[in-house]
Each structure stands twice: as structure tokens, then as C-alpha cells.
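Let's study today's protein:

:::
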Amino acid sequence: MKFHVLTLFPEMIMQGLGTSIIGRAASAGTISLDAVNIRDYSMDKHKKVDDYTYGGGAGMLMQAQPVFDAWKAVCKGQKVRCVYLTPQGTPFTQQIAQDLAKEEELIFLCGHYEGIDERVLEEIVTDYVSIGDYVLTGGELPAMVMIDAISRLVPGVLNNESSAETESFQGNLLEYPQYSRPEVWHDKQVPEVLLSGDHNKIRQWRLEQSVERTKQRRPDLFQRYERNLKCIEQLKKDKLSHIEMIEVIRRGKARLIYFKKDGVLLQDIESGYFMATATNEQGAEQIVNSLKEEMSDAAKAPSYIVAHQDFLKELIAFEFDYDVLMECKQAVYTRKEVLPIKKVVADKYQFRNLTLEELPIVSEIYSYGDEESMKERIQKKALFGLYQEDSLCGFIGIHPDGSLGMLEVMPEYRRNGIGSLLECYLINYALKQGWTPFGQVDVTNLASWKLQEKLGLCLSKNSLWWLEKKSSK
């Protein structure tokens, strides 16, 4: 990802972000930092960039021309999101960080004095963001805060790729307390459960601690957490059919848009997809009305919407000009026991994350995804290959919505149980993360149905439909 900062103090940006994790990521080329001095674009011989405000008032205002020219030099005719740091903006949250992390390039505009001429803001700014209800001397510190938060979500910036997924604000919960050596410090003992080695008990303890800490310190977040729990309870009335919605909420990736007894509409923050279910036609109409508000700006319409009822599918397809891409059944691994594959693999195969070197071959063989989407999955370390020595036998991955899929076996290795090994591996991987493993099977894909039944996955009785935006084809 490329970050451009339009500022009067470029050295402040580069020094502030040039150390620690962000500095190392920049040095490694994982991210790019570019601090642009707005004064370089002033037409004044003294490089003046401010003037008095029309109508009077205290202080000086940054002029439009040097800001516009600096922005134009960075954009080079391309459409790039431009974030203006201002106390008048939308409060910065982890959700906004996740949204901005999807971009390949971002511009941050730092104001000073009394701000910036409104006319240039109207022309170039796409996002107005605040880091809090207080006033600073300039936008540099807020820009650095946002770049730090966004960079941590860029694949390859953190050594531990799961770190960004298991910390504060995921699932509207604050992070649980953590401990390191020594076991006893100032007569305070590390909680015994953390020394037990029982991962299920540790996971449960951490959840309990997160819930209690959130309840005490952030009652506003706790209210959202409780609402999500109530939503899950409603969806669990048909758990197999709604497992993808339940898991998006559980994994802290859901933005709950509509939730009443007659239906649920949520958005998966990572993929941007909407997921909807309704108990009756009245609920379907309420969901459609909510979608109209969400997609009032055509640019916000996602590539895909998932509908859980035939009448809801028809209504959404008609109202929003979406095509029905496929009808699926959910395949869910409901047990907690890992599947036994270690001995088979140890004797003959190895599992590894796919690398970008293998992108051409996996893009060619997997017909449901384009090269860019496969590249994103590889960078997220969400595509896994099974190898015999250095030969790739097949691969499998985790879709942006959290479902297991993208299973492909290379032609020369088919009919050797490779598909079963790959799916077993990914089921075990999901269990280790504390997830319920699930996938979605096209109703016409009988071979995949047989594989799911063979591995002990339960198939939902009801279907769901994937709808694709016509313009996305």
C-alpha cells in the first residue's frame, strides 16, 4: 500500500513513522510512505501558503492553489481516496481502518492554522476523519495515527498475521489481559488456566475476561456485543442455513445493519458483501429498504449479496439489478475433534502457504476467481497448498467471507485422496482458530456433496443464493 501525506512538515511524518514496525515495513517495501511538502507547490516567491480569511476572524487559512497542485501531482490523473484530518470528521474506528486498508493508495491531507480553503476541500477530499473530539495544531499526528492503524492490517506488516484479528474491538470486545514471564511478579501469579495447555479452556477464559472488561470500561461497545448475541440466537434457529452470518458475527467482522424478528441484514466488513435473511415478505421489504439506504451511492454497492430465501432473492435481484450467480447449500463441520491426517501427510506430503510465484498456475486452474482476488488471498496467507516434495498437488483456501473453498487438485494428482487431505487440513486449521468450519456447495456439484458427507460435514436443508452485481462482470 502507498501512503501519501500532504503536509507543511514532511520531516515530522517521516521521522514519526520511520521506526519500529511501520518503519521496518516501509524499508522492506511492504508499504510506501511519501511526505509531500505543500510549500513546494506555492507560486509565492517566499513559498507562502496561507492568507487572511474573508469575512474576518482570528488566524490564517491555508490557500487552495498550493494544496490542489500538491494533490494533483500525487494523483497523476488517477482516482485516489483523499482523507482530510479534521475535528469535524467522522470519528476514526477500527472499522474505518479496515475499510481504508482495502485501498492500494491513500492520500492524507494535513491542515494547519485555521484550516484549509473550503473550495479545494470540495474538489479533492473523499473522506473527512477525526481521531477525537479535541483540537490539535495540525493534521500530522492524526495522519500518523491512522497510517499506523491501517498499516497493521496490510498483509506482511505484522510478523504474526493473526495479531490484527485477535485484539481490541474485534467483535465489539476489548482485548483480554495478557501475561509474560516470570510466572510470579510482585506476588501476583499468572492465572492458572494460561499455564494449563488446554486451548479450549484458555479461549473460554479469554472470552470471559474480554466480556467483563468491555462491560466495565466500554458499556457502549458492550451494548453492541449483546445485540450481536441476540442476533446469533435468532439465526441459530436454523443454524446450518445461517452459519456464514453467525460466523461473521462471531469473528468480529459483522456490521449489523437491520435486526428484528422478521429479518437480519449485515455486512461482512472484510469482503464488503451483504448477507440477508427474512422470515416473511414484510421482513424482505424492510431489508430492501435498508439496502437502498446503504447503496444510495452506487459506488457502495458490493459485487455480491447473499440471500437466504427465494422470495428475498427475487426481490433483491429485481430492485438492485443483480443476477443470480448460484444456488448453494451450507456444509458445516459441527464436531470439535480434529481430523486425523498427520501420519499420512508426514509420510508423503507437506502443507505450505502458497506464494505469489504460484499465482499464475492457481489463477489458471481455479475458474471461479480472477487473478487479483487470488493474489489477495495469497497475500492474506489464506491459500494453502499440498506438496509432494516440490510439486504442488492441489490447494484450498478461505474466502473473504470466512467460508472454506477454492479446492482444486492438479490433474496429474486426481483420484488419490488429495481433495480429502486438503479439506481435512483446512477444517483442522479453522478449529485451531476457534471457528466453526463451513463451506458452500453449489447444488449442482454432486462430487463436492459426496466429499462433504464423506468427511462428516452436515448439509443444510435450505438453500442460499449468491447474487452478483451485473456491472461487476
User: Anything to note?
Assistant: Residues 162-168 have pLDDT under 50 and may be disordered. The longest strand covers residues 458-469.
